[in-house]
């Protein structure tokens, strides 16, 4: 497919895509309906659409082609027939660091403003280093794995045999390129968990005690529960989420890990737990609340365009409602670990201040985990004690 045809295909993509669903769902459906596209064409089209979304709302006054070329230039690092064809002056500089590329773009397009890439900069937590955060959106995050105990050498050797580059973050934590097909490399039972670096770092705040009963109340696919279990396998687990379909993925992951002794329940925590006949009292609670997901938009850049800032308040209200329904199930003197994958202060520090003032909780510590410094997601975590 020539660069000109690449652009025509991109036009079809962007005119079809209404930003109502994530890109990773939209693209497979589009390709199923356009089976004439080969593997290389699909790969290029996906790259261009993701790169375009990474530009956020910058250069919005420019033509579609101009914005796409700038986006592909900023995000590509090695090769781009597209840039070479449409903006050959940029092509020799593809391998430059993002900082230097941004200087070139600004020199050619004086209206370019980095803050337009993420137009919610005024909502960020104070801990976010704004310029580094904004620039990180032009880099595709890595995939992180947490290797099961005793399997470290096996996994490393397998990756090396298949010439897969990886970075080491800890003895059992590796990062591989985003496009790595782990499900093909490890076709049988995975000897690791796929879990982002920031998500793994929240575990520093868990500190389980032997024999504790913990409740992972918005468990999702169970990543935080598995992290807790890896710290102390004597912990008794209760997991819940709002839909059975969500828990079904958790069941598969638990089975793969050999975790069979736990209790699972479907719960809507926006509603009273009494009405749902839930009566558990726990030694610890993991509360990874529904949120804007703004700390993951480097991985899911389409959200930059589809998000409305009014949703921040909507999420904050939802988070406070869930918290009020969860807190009665925590024993006095025990920890609640509050987590979001958001970088917005309203969902993070503002909520923690509200919880402490409203419920008399003790804040032990809180942190914005800066995944944007490591090609990872960013998360917020706080450890609260019930008085």
What is this structure, in a nutshell?
This protein is α/β, with parallel strands linked by helices. The protein has helices at residues 3-16, 23-33, 39-54, 64-75, 81-86, 98-108, 130-136, 152-161, 182-185, 197-201, 223-231, 244-257, 302-306, 310-326, 349-359, and strands at residues 143-147, 167-170, 173-176, 192-194, 213-216, 236-241, 262-266, 284-288, 335-340, 362-369, 379-385.
Annotation keywords:
387 residues; alpha/beta; Alpha-Beta Plaits; 3 domains; seven-stranded mixed beta sheet; four-stranded antiparallel beta sheet; 15 helices; 11 strands; globular
Q: Any overview of this molecule?
A:
With 387 residues, the protein is an alpha/beta fold. It folds into 3 domains: 114 residues; 52 residues, 2-Layer Sandwich (Alpha-Beta Plaits); 188 residues, Vaccinia Virus protein VP39 (Rossmann fold, 3-Layer(aba) Sandwich). The protein is 39% helix and 15% strand. The strands form 2 sheets. The protein has a 7-stranded mixed sheet, sandwiched between helices. It has a 4-stranded antiparallel sheet with strand order 2-3-1-4, with no helix packed on it. α3 crosses α4. The longest helix has 17 residues. The chain is globular, with a radius of gyration of 22 Å. The model has no long low-confidence stretch (mean pLDDT 95).
């Amino acid at each position: 497919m020539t660069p000109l045809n690449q652009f025509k295909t991109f036009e079809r993509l962007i005119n079809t895509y209404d930003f109502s669903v994530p890109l990773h769902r939209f693209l497979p459906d589009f390709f199923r309906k356009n089976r004439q596209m080969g593997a290389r064409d699909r790969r290029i089209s996906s790259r261009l659409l993701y790169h375009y979304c990474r530009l956020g709302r910058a250069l919005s006054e420019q033509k579609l082609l101009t914005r796409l070329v700038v986006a592909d230039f900023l995000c590509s690092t090695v090769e781009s027939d597209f840039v070479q064809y449409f903006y050959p002056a940029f092509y020799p500089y593809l391998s430059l660091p993002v900082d230097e590329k941004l200087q070139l773009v600004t020199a050619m397009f004086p209206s370019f403003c980095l803050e337009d890439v993420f137009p919610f900069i005024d909502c960020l937590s104070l801990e976010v280093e704004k310029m580094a955060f904004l620039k990180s959106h032009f880099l595709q995050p890595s995939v992180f794995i947490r290797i099961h105990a005793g399997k470290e050498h096996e996994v490393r050797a397998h990756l090396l045999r298949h010439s897969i580059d990886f970075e080491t973050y800890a003895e059992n934590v590796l990062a591989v390129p985003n496009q790595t097909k782990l499900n093909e490399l490890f076709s049988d039972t995975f000897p690791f968990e796929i879990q982002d670096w920031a998500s793994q770092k929240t575990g520093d705040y868990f500190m389980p005690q032997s024999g504790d009963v913990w409740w992972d109340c918005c468990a999702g696919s169970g990543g935080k529960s598995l992290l807790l279990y890896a710290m102390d396998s004597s912990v008794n687990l209760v997991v819940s989420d709002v839909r059975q379909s969500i828990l079904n993925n958790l069941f598969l992951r638990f089975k793969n890990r050999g975790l069979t002794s736990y209790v699972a329940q479907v719960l809507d925590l926006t509603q009273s737990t009494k009405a749902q006949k839930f009566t558990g009292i726990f030694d610890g609670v993991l509360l990874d609340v529904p949120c804007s997901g703004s700390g993951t938009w480097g991985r899911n850049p389409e959200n930059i365009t589809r998000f409305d800032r009014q949703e921040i308040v909507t999420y904050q209200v939802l988070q406070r409602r869930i918290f009020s329904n969860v807190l009665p199930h925590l024993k006095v003197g025990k920890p609640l670990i509050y987590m979001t994958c958001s970088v917005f202060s309203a969902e993070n520090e503002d909520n923690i201040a509200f919880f402490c003032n409203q419920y008399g909780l003790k804040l032990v510590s809180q942190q914005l985990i800066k995944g944007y410094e490591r090609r990872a997601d960013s998360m917020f975590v706080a450890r609260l004690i019930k008085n």
